[in-house]
Amino acid sequence: QVQLVESGGGLVQPGGSLRLSCAASGSRFGLYTMGWYRQAPGNQREVVARMAPFGTTTYADSVKGRFTISRDDAKNMGYLQMSALTPEATAVYYCNVAPISGGPPYWGQGTQVPVSS
User: Fold this and answer.
1) How far lies 21's CA from each of 34, 42, 72, 111, 115, in Å?
2) Most buried pick, 17, 18, 32, 103, via CB within 10 A?
3) For 19-54, what is each residue's pLDDT tens digit?
4) What pLDDT band is residue 109 in, cutting at 50, 70 and 90?
């Protein structure tokens, strides 16, 4: 069982930056693929970025070059650095981990990121 707690969300102006954090409980965090997803009002949840245990990363086309996913396995922490934010990035952002051996993923409760002037 893994529990995830996101933090770092909040109101940010267009063009601004924000770093989200994801704290994971339990051990074996290094054996999970970690991902950040978001869900805007009225939209389905979509993947933003994912990072495999050995560092391979993938990004949604809409955030490439502006968002960076990272992780610190020793601290059981994941991060999403977001820059050049636009109002279209307004959403609830969720942390997700999935064991590389298979099995159900785990989700955090989400953190809101409104981008507005």
Assistant:
1) 12, 25, 11, 10, 18
2) 32
3) 999 999 977 888 899 999 999 999 999 999 999 998
4) very high
